[in-house]
Amino acid sequence: MLLLIGALVVLGSVAGGYVLSHGNLIMLWQPYEIIIIGGAAFGGFLTANPKHVIIETFKKVPGLLAGSHFNKALFMDLLAMMYDLFNKARKEGIIAIEADIEEPQESPIFSAYPAVVKHETLVEFICDYMRLISSGNMQPHELEALMDAEIETRLHELEEPAHAVGSVADALPGFGIVAAVLGITITMQDIAAPPEVLGHHIAAALVGTFLGILASYGFVGPLSHAMKHEAFEEAKAFECIKACLLANMNGVPPQLSVEFGRKMLLSNVRPSFVELEEHVRSR
């Protein structure tokens, strides 16, 4: 929602200031300039990125309009789910959760937290490392190194769409200049035309530069930064799980194990100790 509000503020400020300065909005409507700038930017985007990044980028944009999924409610469910897994393993033995981690979609524990289960990568991360822990063949420091490597790789993957969009933002002012130069070329063809005709051509050419810069700094650049923030928030979820798993592996009780994970969260989404304790008890 904030993404949409921000875009409207940019449009309202630029258009409103222009109109109040006695500008004519119709002059800013130059569809051929938009085709040049938008088409060139999209073509560069397709050329620069592999297919999976292009697909992932288009998947990310609609989700940004709805706001981040990684909020306090999700993290409270995630920590409560980790507690349930640890508690079952502690009471019934690590073998008791084998069915849960092999078939998470059928597990009563996982099914109780649909908001978490929707994030398949988080569930897969939990199940993979619970399997490794249950095997009993790895030391905590070995598991931590493996987790760090996977989280680093995952963060790189999550940031790829943001970098791709950021490259487009960097290129847009240049494509705006390209459109402006082409507009000046058209103007020079009609150099003998009356001043009012020349003025119209020059104004249309300048709009190309304006559109490229506005699109870059007002829309596409901020979109890239929003994608980076979302990638960082998702990476924090993996770090939260990592902290919980390592604490439990080192013999820390379930209630304190999830406290290790809670401490990894950013302050704006981190539940208090009491909030988490009440949430766990209410499940």
From TrEMBL:
Belongs to the MotA family. NCBIfam families: MotA1. It comes from the Bacteria. GO terms for cellular component: plasma membrane. GO terms for biological process: bacterial-type flagellum-dependent swarming motility; chemotaxis; proton transmembrane transport. It is a multi-pass membrane protein. It comes from Allopseudospirillum japonicum. This is Chemotaxis protein MotA. Residues 135-238 form the MotA/TolQ/ExbB proton channel domain. Residues 4-93 form the Motility protein A N-terminal domain. Keywords: Cell inner membrane, Cell membrane, Chemotaxis, Flagellar rotation, Hydrogen ion transport, Ion transport, Membrane, Transmembrane, Transmembrane helix, Transport.
